[in-house]
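Hello Y.,

Per our agreement to keep a running log of every chain we model this quarter, I'm adding this entry. I've kept the format consistent with earlier entries: sequence first, then predicted structure.
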Amino acid sequence: MVQRINTIKEVLKKRKSVLVLGPRGSGKTYFVNHLLESFTHTLKIDLLDGALYRRYLNKPEQLSKDIEYQLNNDVLYVFIDEVQTIPQLLNEVHRLIGRYKERCVFILTGSSARKLKRNDTNLLGGCPRTRQKDAGAGTAPLPGLKQIYPQSPGKPRRFYVSR
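Predicted structure for the entry above:
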C-alpha cells in the first residue's frame, strides 16, 4: 500500500488530476482520505451526502462556483467521491481543469465505469477505447490518461491519471 500511495501522491504533487475507479467496498474513499492528509488546501465533496447530491444534481454548475470560491494562491485539491452518481459533474470538472490547469487538481472516485459509459458522459478526454480482453472488469485507459496499477491485491484494480 505504501508504494501505491507514494505513486499517486507523486502524480498529485505534479498537479495532475486522478480518476480512481474500482468495485464498491474496495477502499477507494479511505485511500483518498488518507492521501489528502498530506495536502493543506483541500475540498471534499461526498455525493452520498443527500444535501450535496441534490444541490449538484439540480445545478451541476454550482460545483464551479463552489470551487472558484475556494481558489486562492495555493493549489486546491478537490476530492469528489462517487462521481458516477452525477455524471453531469464531469462537464464542470473538464471545464475547470482547462481553466485553472495547475491551480485546481481533482481526485475523482467512482464504482461504476459502466454507468459513466452508458450515459454518454464526458470522460475528460474523449470516448473510451474498446475494452481489452485482459482488462478485467474495468475499461481500457481513456485518451489523455495513464494507468497506474496498485501493488496490493483486493484494492482498486487500476488508477487513471492525466498526463
